[in-house]
Description:
Blueprint: H1 14-30, E1 34-36, E2 47-51, H2 58-63, E3 70-75, H3 76-79, H4 84-90, E4 93-96, H5 103-114, E5 118-121, H6 139-147, E6 151-157, H7 159-162, E7 176-179, H8 194-215
Helix pairs in contact: 5-6, 6-8
Amino acid sequence: xxxxxxxVQARRRWYYWLSQVIVGVLFRIYFRHETSGIENLPEKKGAxxxxxxxxxxxxxxxxxxxxxxxxxxxxxxxxxxxxFGSLIRxxxxxxxxxxxxxRAALDKAKEIVEKGNLLLIFPEGSRSGDGKIRxxxxxxxxxxxxTGVPVIPGFIAGANDAWPEKGWWPRPRKTAVLFGPAVDxxxxxxxxxxxxxxxxxxxxxxxAVMVLxxxxxx
Length: 218
């Protein structure tokens, strides 16, 4: 497996841009997809995008309207699939062990944002089959506190209805992505227990995502 190279301020390669155009048109026609809150993302600086996770549609639904490339974690077993693994790596995916963020994945995540790039994280760790938001894991807190980058909370609506976990094919359901204002933890009041601090930050990020969900009636 080729190691994912992390450039400073990654540019949209031609196939990345072309995919956004084609997939964007398809999503808007088939799902009547909408994205709002793009103005909350930094134009150049590094940041973590944290959203709920209910469907395999989530990564492209987040990335389709972003003006900058986004990196994201994908479970290692996906990287091991012939051709598919190469495809997702070409779109800036890097592997993480199922059941928890590996040390190597966390180090890669920190490198990505420290170089000024966007990193998409699904802090629940896996898809929630019922569409509800599960407890966020502390890994995102570790990344945020050790890098000092802001967090952009996001909420994906309708993806679970469009393509549920056990579905064979996506259905034409209305979908949307909403990005909220950046959350900064540089001046957060913390304890001497690092593990508790990581979880507290993860909980605060989850609350920000749930506020967005409530604004959509979810």
